[in-house]
């Protein structure tokens, strides 16, 4: 474990949020769904999803505008190469629907269709995150665990913290393994 990494201050208990679900849509596509509650307004969450200054705190670099029909490309920051985190190439995407600050729906060359619905509540915002993917069965729960961890990182970003992507594999791959094991056990 990297003891000098800023990630050590981030929460590593991936069980603080409920597990997400999977639903086969047809022979090729599966929908992943995760529901979260964040103690901020939909407007604050919208910025965390769309502002290129905020998305790298918890998710990916973003290139494009959150406007229906616009390009919206993603560059993952936690890909491993020779033991260190690296950035991926840009994965091209397009905004299918943007209704600020309530709905953001994207198509992405690597991650299929991503849809986020934000609903205000008395204590903040309920987020329903869904991802429709076409991947082999063994990758479905891996993807669900990955989104689970990213949405946990979002909670941390809302608290003013940021992931140190260069050390993500040392600091958070064990957390991903933990939540992936829980998803695998829940599917049995």
Characterize the structure shown.
The chain is an alpha+beta fold. The protein has a single domain, classed as 2-Layer Sandwich (Alpha-D-Glucose-1,6-Bisphosphate, Chain A, domain 4). The protein has three helices and ten strands; from the N terminus they run ββαββββββββαα. It has helices spanning 42-50, 137-158, 168-187; strands at residues 21-24, 30-38, 60-64, 72-76, 79-81, 84-86, 93-99, 103-108, 112-121, 124-133. The strands form three sheets. Strands 1-2-10-9-8-7 form a six-stranded antiparallel sheet, covered by helices on one side. Strands 3-4 form a two-stranded antiparallel ribbon. Strand 7 and strand 8 form a beta hairpin. Helix 2 packs across helix 3. The protein is globular, with a radius of gyration of 16 Å. Belongs to the AHA1 family.
Sum this structure up briefly.
This protein is α+β, with helices and mostly antiparallel strands and 188 residues long.
Notable traits:
about 190 residues; alpha+beta; Alpha-D-Glucose-1,6-Bisphosphate, Chain A, domain 4; six-stranded antiparallel β-sheet; two-stranded antiparallel sheet; about 25% helix; globular; disordered N terminus; START-like_dom_sf; Activator of Hsp90 ATPase homologue 1/2-like C-terminal domain-containing protein; ASHA1/2-like_C
Give the second-level CATH assignment, the architecture.
2-Layer Sandwich
**Mass-distribution shape:** globular
**What is the helix content?**
25-40%
Q: Provide the CATH superfamily.
A: START domain
> What is the CATH topology?
Alpha-D-Glucose-1,6-Bisphosphate, Chain A, domain 4
Mean pLDDT: 89
Structural class: alpha+beta
CATH class descriptor? Alpha Beta
Beta-strand proportion: 25-35%
Radius of gyration: 16 Å
- Note the main sheet: 6 strands, antiparallel
* Helical stretch tally: 3
The low-confidence runs, each spanning 5 or more residues with pLDDT under 50, are 1-5
């Amino acid at each position: 474990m990297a003891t000098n990494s800023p990630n050590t201050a981030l929460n590593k208990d991936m069980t603080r949020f409920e597990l997400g679900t999977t639903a086969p849509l047809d022979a090729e596509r599966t929908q992943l769904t995760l529901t979260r509650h964040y103690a901020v307004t939909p407007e604050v969450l919208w910025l965390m999803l769309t502002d290129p200054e905020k998305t790298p705190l918890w998710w990916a670099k973003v290139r494009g505008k959150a406007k229906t029909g616009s390009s919206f490309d993603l560059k993952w920051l936690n890909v491993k190469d020779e033991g260190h985190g690296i950035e991926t190439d840009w994965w091209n995407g397009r905004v299918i629907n943007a209704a600020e600050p309530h709905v953001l729906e994207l198509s992405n060359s690597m991650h299929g269709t991503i849809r986020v619905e934000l609903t205000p509540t008395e204590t903040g915002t309920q987020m329903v995150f869904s991802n429709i993917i076409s991947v082999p069965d063994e990758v479905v729960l891996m993807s669900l665990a990955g989104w689970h961890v990213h949405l946990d990182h979002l909670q941390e970003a809302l608290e003013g913290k940021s992931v140190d992507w260069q050390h993500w594999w040392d600091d958070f791959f064990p957390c991903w393994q933990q939540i992936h094991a829980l998803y695998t056990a829940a599917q049995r």
